[in-house]
Amino acid sequence: MTVFDCSDPTARRAGLDAAATAARSGHLVVLPTDTVYGLGADAFNAAAVRALLATKGRGPDMPVPVLVGSWNTVDGLVGTVPDVARTLIRAFWPGGLSLVMHHAPSLAWDLGDTRGTVMIRMPLHPAALDLLRLVGPMAVSSANRSGQPPATTAAQAVEQLGSDVAVYLDGGSAAVGIASTVLDLTGEVPTVLRQGAVPLERLREVIGEVQAAG
């Protein structure tokens, strides 16, 4: 377990290299994002994703979201990107909005019981974006044990996850401090599954009709 201070340019470069190497080797890493800290693994390494779920104390019934480092990456992960998704991406990415869409059927990954969908977000944090551009799409869930509060600092993540994680990138306190808003685009009407960093009203300003689940 190694912690790298991303406020120091030398440590940041070393940390990104170490985190990318660890993720490519099937190990877990903790990365800062704009919302809360994330526990991440290579999205295409099924064993690493299972280790992520086990570390959190969760089962496959709660699939792991995917973070990407660019808008264009979505086209390789989603069967058909709906126009409403592109509108939302232009308005809110990078940022605190996660979009649920049907993933491309050809993808060889196992994120849990996704029922053919994937939750994707592009985070607004330079260290996270740099890591994602080095590794590619990463399965990333909040950096905490199940039932505990999501970590908003690297120290909180270390306290909860300890040596189960190979590399921690310390990017300071998370700017938002609450999880992303999750918007499901697989039905007839976009549906908010989780209220979070992007308010429902802002979504409606951009795309019109949006409903809240339940």
UniProtKB/TrEMBL annotation:
GO biological process, alphabetically ordered: regulation of translational fidelity; tRNA processing
Protein's organism: Nakamurella flavida
Catalytic activity, as annotated: L-threonine + hydrogencarbonate + ATP = L-threonylcarbamoyladenylate + diphosphate + H2O
GO terms of molecular function: ATP binding; double-stranded RNA binding; L-threonylcarbamoyladenylate synthase; tRNA binding
GO cellular component, one term: cytoplasm
Organism phylogeny: Bacteria, Bacillati, Actinomycetota, Actinomycetes, Nakamurellales
Limits of the YrdC-like domain: 13-198
Matching NCBIfam families: L-threonylcarbamoyladenylate synthase
Protein name: L-threonylcarbamoyladenylate synthase
Pfam families: Sua5_yciO_yrdC
Family, similarity comment: Belongs to the SUA5 family.
InterPro entries named in the record: DHBP_synth_RibB-like_a/b_dom, Sua5-like_dom, TC-AMP_synthase_SUA5
Localization annotation: Cytoplasm
Keyword Cell membrane annotated: no
Main location: cytoplasm
Alphabetical UniProt keywords: ATP-binding, Cytoplasm, Nucleotide-binding, Nucleotidyltransferase, Transferase, tRNA processing
